Amino acid sequence: MTAIRLLIEPKVHDIGFPVRRLLPVLETRSIGPFVFFDHMGPADFEPNTTEGDVRPHPHIGLATVTYLFSGALVHRDSLGTVQRIEPGAINLMTAGRGIVHSERIPPDIRANETVVQGIQTWIALPVVYENVEPDFQHYTAEQLPGYQEDGVQLRVLIGRMGGLTSPVHTYSPTLYATAILDDDATLELDADYQEQGLYVVSGAVSVNGEPIKAGQLAQFEPGQALTLTAQANSRVMLLGGAPLDGRRHMYWNFVASSRERIEEAKADWAAGRFAPVPGESEFIPLPG
């Protein structure tokens, strides 16, 4: 029996820097609560410019998760948060009823022409929590549990895996982990979560003997124990969790269980009714 339900190829976008988008796609809108998955970079940026900066923009109904492999970003939001994120740490921003944020390239990263690369994901909130108060949490690399043995470096970013539990709070059962594997190393993936997927950042792997190349996202059949084997030195991201509690509508940066809520958010952003980011005067207009 095949372990892979769907093998997703990236679509490349340029939003001031290159991103490879894996979710959503027509064939599957989510894996567990993950409704959006972008591989950012690698990219470096000219000193004394705003190249790569993402101006203030709004979100509702989701939590954004930022994880970097290299470089740094500075997050600012309408709660007054100012937080630099560096490799190995987690920025978790819960939008709930609505939040605005920006992400900018720090001057030292530009000056040193440091490559910025990482993963940004959106986690849809359960319907009952769609309109919670917005929140921001930062977790350092040292706060996130992991181990290194037999050619595998594993870090659990969200949820539970391999007897390790992350301190990161989410509103539904969620798995998010990263692993670096030496060539021919193996990692057992149990079936604790109903929906699971794996993204190959670099290298190449096989799962139960089925190959997955760099840049591909595999969605697995549910309920199977999986054996991941590296075919080269590789880096992977593991994601999944409980299925969504119903359909989600997505427009731009908005996620909601009803079209009416999306329309309300569009009108609020166009009319300037979202709280601004302190110290920021720019913004991204509503598309169209």
UniProtKB/TrEMBL annotation:
InterPro entries reported in the protein's UniProt record: Pirin, Pirin_C_dom, Pirin_N_dom, RmlC-like_jellyroll, RmlC_Cupin_sf
Name the domain of life.
Bacteria
Q: Which residues form the Pirin N-terminal domain?
A: 19-123
The chain positions of domain Pirin C-terminal read 179-274
Q: Name one Pfam family in it.
A: Pirin
Q: Which residues form a coiled coil?
A: none
Q: Which Gene3D superfamilies match?
A: Jelly Rolls
State the family named in the UniProt similarity comment for this chain: Belongs to the pirin family.
Name the chain's protein. Answer: Pirin family protein
Species this chain originates from:
Crenobacter oryzisoli
